[in-house]
Amino acid sequence: MSRYVSFRDFDWLLLIFVLMICGLGIMEIRSATAHTQFAGAHIKQVYWVMGGVGAMFLMSLINYQAMLDKVHWLYIAALTSLMLVLIFGQKYKGARRWVKLPGMHFQPSEWVKLILILAVAKYFADLQQRELSWPEFIKAGAIVGVPMLMVLRQPDLGTALTYLPIAVIGSFLGGVRLKQALIVILAAVLLMPLAWHALKPYQRDRLTSFMHPDADSQDKGYQVNQSLIAVGSGGIWGSTEGSQTHLAFLPVPQTDFIFAAFAEEHGFVGALGVLLLYFIVLMRLTQNAQTAPDRAGTFVVMGVVAVLSFHILVNVGMVVGFMPVTGIPLPLMSYGGSSVLFMFLALGMVMNVRMRRFVN
Amino acid sequence: MFGRDEKLSSVRLTAVQYIILAIFLILAYGLWRLQVMQSEFYAGLAERNRVRTVPILAPRGKILDREGRVIVDNYPSFTALLLRDSLRDLSADADLIAKGLNMNPSEVREHIRKFASMPQYQPIFLKDDITPDELAFVESHRNELPELDTIMAHRRLYPRKGFMAHLVGYVGEVSEDMLNQPQWEFYNPGDVVGRSGIELQYNQMLMGKNGARRTIVNSRGKEVQSLSETPAVPGTQLKLTVDIDLQIAAEEAIEGKNGAIIAMDPRTGEILAMVSRPTFDPNNFAVRISRGEWNKLVTDPDKPLLNKAIQAQLAPGSTFKIIMSVAGWQEGVAQSLNVHCNGGANFYGRRFGCWVKQGHGAVDLTKAIYQSCDVFFYTLAEKLGINRIAKYATALGLGQKTGIDLPQEVSGVMPSEEWKIRNFKQKWFAGETISVGIGQGAVATTPVQLMRAIAAISMGGRMVVPHVANPSEFPQAYVAANHYMDVKNIPIEPSGWNLITDAMGRVLLPEGTAPSAHIPGIDIAGKTGSAQIVSLATRAKHENSEALAQNGWFVGFTPRRNPEIIVAVLFEGGEHGRLAARLATQVIKAYVDKQRRLPSKVAKQDHKVDVGAIWNEAGDEEFHGGRFLIDVAKPRLPLATAAPGLR
After folding, report:
1. B217 shares contact with chain A (CB less than 8 Å)
2. Hey, which residues does B155 pair with through a beta bridge?
3. Which pLDDT score, from 0 to 100, does residue B475 have?
4. Which residues of chain B make contact with A282, given a CB cutoff of 8 A?
5. Strands B350-353 and B70-82, how do they pair?
6. Which 8-state DSSP code applies to residue B286?
7. Nearest 5°: CA angle at B576, between B502 and B370?
8. What is the nearest CA distance from A279 to chain B, expressed in angstroms?
9. What is the pLDDT of residues B18-28, one digit of tens each?
10. Residues B474, B405: contact at Cβ < 8 Å?
C-alpha cells in the first residue's frame, strides 16, 4: 500500500477561515472583559488557539484509519473517564464535571465527543448496507446514549445534548428510514414529560424562562432578556456605546454570550458576517466529507459538521431568543480552553481525512 | 477492508448542506428581527438599563416671624427610594427591602402599586428620615438591590412641643385622594406638601422645584458617568406677621388649658400670635405618622388637630354684648335705655335670669357693659328685634369667614329670621331673640371673628382682614387679589364707640367683671364672657360635670384709644370670663413690655453709675469705704431669637 501524506493536501483555506473566526472571538473577548475581573482573558485565548492549532497538526498526522481500528479501546477509556468524573469529580455549582489534574482542570465530556464521532463513524462504516435495520439503529443509539446518560448524571444537560447530533447524523447518513426516524421522534416526544420530571430545578427554570423571558426578568429570564437587549440595541451597524456588554448588564459576555456581545458592538452587519464565516467553514467541511477516501472518513467529517452546526444553532439561537439557555459555548469564539482544544482536535481529524483522500 | 466500501449517498450529504443553510437562514432571520425590525425598542430598553434619573429634592422655604427669626427650618435627612428605570421585578425584592428598612412588606408593595402608573423616571419614595442602620443596609446591598437608593432630603424641623403647631401646620406626602382634586393635579405621588396651616396655605410658595441628575450606571447600580444635572430650585421663605415673643407669651398663658388665644394689630389685621390647645407635635408626623398615633389625635374629644382660633364655633356669651351695644347705639335705642335689674326679667311669659342673682339695680349702657348686666341686654334685644341685631352683627363680620389666610376657617352662625327659615323652614320666635342678646342661643362665633368685630369697634368702625403672612413681601397684585389689605368701614357714631370702649376700660377696674386681671400701668379695654354650652338645668342634671363647664371668653385691647393690639381668648371650661381675661392680659403685658423696652435715646447713653460701698478684708476688722463708677448696661429681658427648639 503506497502512503502519500503531505501537508500540501492540508486544508489551508479552511484553517484561514477558522482562524478568522478565532480572531474575531479574541477581539470580542478583549473588548468584553476590559475593565472586568476577567481582563486579559483574550491573551489566554490566544495561547489556547495557538495550542489548538498545534494539536490540530499533531492530530492530522495520526492516521484516522488506525484510530478507527482501536476505537473500541478509546470508547472504553471514554466511559471510564466519565465514570471517574462521577465518582471523583470536583463539585462546582451543584454539578460534577471537572477532574482536577495536576496544574489544570479537565472536563472529559469534551473529548468524549471526539471519541463518539470516531465510534459512530466506525460503526456505520462497517455496516455497509444502504438501509438500517431496527437492531442496528438501536445499537447506534446505545453507542451515543450510554455516555450521554452518564453526562446527564453530572448533571450537564448542555453537553449531553451535544452528543445527540453525532447519533443523528450517523443514522441519517447511515440510511435510517423515514418510518424509523418518525417513531423515534414520536417516542422522544412521549417521553418528554418523564424527562421534564428528571430535570434539575435550575434546568427547568432555564427552559421556562426561555418561553416567558419577561415573567421573571430578574433571575432566570435575566440572561435571556439582557441578551435580547444587547443584540437588539446593536442595530444594523452596531451600538457605539455597547453599554449592555461594557456596563456588565450582559452576563458572562466572554463565554456563552459572546455572540450577543459581538452583535451589540458590530450590529446586524457584523453578526451576519460571523454567521457567513461559520457557513463557509461548514460548507468547506461537507465538501471535505464528500472527497473522503472511504465511508468512515465521510462519517468522521460529518460528525464534526453535526457537532459544530448544533453548537452554532443552540448558541446563536439562544442569543437571538429562539433557544433556551443551555450553557453551550459558541465554538471557536467563546473563551475557554476545553472548547477551543476540542474544536481544533476535531478539525485535526478532518484534516487527517482530507490529507488521505488520494490514499488508496 | 476499508478500501472495499462504497461511497455514501450523496443525496443525503446534499440534504445536510441544505439543512445547515436552513439553520443559518433562521438564525439570520432572528438577527434581522432583533437588530433591524425591533432595534429601536431594544435600544430604548438598553437606555433604561444604563441611564438612571435621581431626583434632587428642593428644600422648602423657611418660615420666619415678623422680625425674621426662624420658626420652621429644615434639616438634612436621608430618604430611601426605589428607582424604577431598571428592569428588576421590584415586588420580588419587597420582602428583603422591607426587612432592611423596618417596614411591612405589604407597605412596600403598596408603594410600588401606587407608582405603577407613573413614568419610569419617577422613583418610588419608600421611607423618609431613615436611621443610620437603615442607611447602612442600603449601602451594603448595592449589589443585591441595585434599585434601592437614597437621596438627601430636607426634612421639616418644627418648634418643639407643639409650639405654634396649628398656625404653622405640617407637611406630609400628598395623598391619593388629594391627587384627584384639581388643585393638586400637577403634583406627583411622593411629593411632600403642606397638609394644614401655613404649610398648606402657602404650599406653592414654600415648595421648591425638584431637580434631577441623570447618570449612567452599570449593572450593579454603580455610577459610571454623569450625564446632566438640573439643579433644584429651593422654596421661597415666608415671613409671617407673628411675633415670637408674643407667641411665647400666649403659649405660656394657655399652657395646660384648652382653648385658643389670638392677638392682632387692629390697625392692619396682622396676626401677632395664635395659639390653640391642646396641641400636637408636628415633628412626630412631618411625613409619616403611625395609624395608632393618628387615631388618637383624631378621636381625642379635645380635638388637638383643630385650630380653635379659626375652627371653634361657640356661643360668644357676654362678649357679644359689645356688638349689641353698637347695634343699640346706632339704632338710637341704647343711649336712653335705663333698666332696673333685680336679678332677672320676664319676656314672652318666660323668666330670664341675670348672672348676678341679687341684681344690678339701676343700669345704663356703661354699667351694663362693665358689669355685664344680662337684664339690660335682654331688654335691648327685645327692643331691637333679631333682624336689627343681625344687621349690625353681620356688618361686623359675624357668621362669615374673616378671610384669614389659613385653610379650613369656619363661618360661625349669626341667626336672623331669614336664616331660620332657610335652615329650619321655621318662623323665628321672638323669645329666641332674648338669648341672642347675651350671646347665647343660636349665635356661634369663632375667636378670630369675634376679635375682628371688636377690633373694628375699637377702631371706630374700621374693619381689617386678619392675616398671618406678611403682605409686604408679596407682589402688589397678589396682595390686592387676596384681600390682605382690604378695609371695610362700618359706620359707627364716634360718641357711641367712645362710650362703649370707655365702658370696656372699666371691666378690669374694681367695679368691672374682671378686676383680678388688671395690670397696673396698662390701660386695657375689654369684655368678658361666659358662655354655656348646655343650659344650666342640663348641667345640674350631670352634677356639674367638668365636660359641660362654661367657656370663658375675653376680648381686650390696648390702648383704649388708637389700639395697637387686640387679644381674644377662648378658655374652654374656664367657667368665667375673668379667668380668660387673665390669660389675655399676659399677652398684652408682653406686648407692652416689649414696646417699652425699645431702645430710646436715653438707653443709648453710657450708663456709668456712681456707687458707694463699705467692706472689710477677710480676717481684718477695719472697715474700708469708697465710691466707684460702674458701667451698668440697661437691663433688658432676653428676647427670643427663634422659635423654641430651633436654635
Report:
1. yes
2. B75
3. 83
4. 20
5. unpaired
6. S
7. 20
8. 7
9. 999 999 999 99
10. no
ipTM: 0.92
- The verdict on B472 touching A (C-beta cutoff 8 Å) is no
- A268 vs B contacts (CB less than 8 Å): 31-32, 35-36
Nearest CA in chain A to B223: A247
Dist. CA B300–CA B588, nearest whole Å: 31
Order of all β-strands in the sheet with B211-217? B51-56, B211-217, B223-230
CA distance A114 to A64: 12
Beta-carbon separation of B46 and A230 below 8 A: yes
Q: Which CA distances in Å does B548 have to B246, B531, B541? A: 31, 11, 11
The residues, any chain, with a CB within 8 Å of residue B61's CB and separated by 6 or more, are B205, B206, B207, B208, B234, B235, B236, B237, B238
Cell (9 digits) for B641: 431669637
User: What are the Cα distances from residue B7, in Å, to A130, A232, A264, B4, B82?
Assistant: 10, 45, 44, 10, 68
Contact in structure between A194 and A208 (CB atoms under 8 Å): no
Contacts of B24 in chain A (CB under 8 A): 275, 278-279
Strand partners for B259: B277, B571
Span B51-239 CATH architecture: Alpha-Beta Complex (3.90)
* pLDDT tens profile A260-295: 999 999 999 999 999 999 999 999 999 999 888 888
Farthest-apart Cα atoms in chain B, separation = 151
Burial of A64 (0-12, 13-18, 19+ CB in 10 A): buried
Say whether A298 and B2 touch across the interface (CB within 8 A): no
In degrees, rounded to 5, the angle at the alpha carbon of residue A336 between the alpha carbons of residues A335 and A341 is: 120
CATH number of B244-596: 3.40.710.10
Please state whether beta strands B350-353 and B63-64 pair in parallel, antiparallel, or not at all (unpaired): unpaired
CA distance A249 to chain B (A): 5
Query: At A188, is the secondary structure helix, strand, or coil?
Result: helix
- The answer to whether B35 contacts A235, with C-beta atoms less than 8 Å apart, is yes
Q: d(Cα B559, Cα A180) in Å, to the nearest integer?
A: 116
Residue of B nearest to A321 (CA): B30
Global pTM?
A: 0.67
Spatial separation of the C-alpha atoms in residues B84 and B358, rounded to whole Å: 79
Q: How far apart are CA B25 and CA B31, in angstroms?
A: 10
Contact B218 A248 (CB under 8 A): yes
Q: Which of B488, B61, B514, B65 is nearest to B269 (CA)?
A: B488
Total residue length of chain B? 647
Contact between A205 and A220 under an 8 Å Cβ cutoff? The reply is: yes
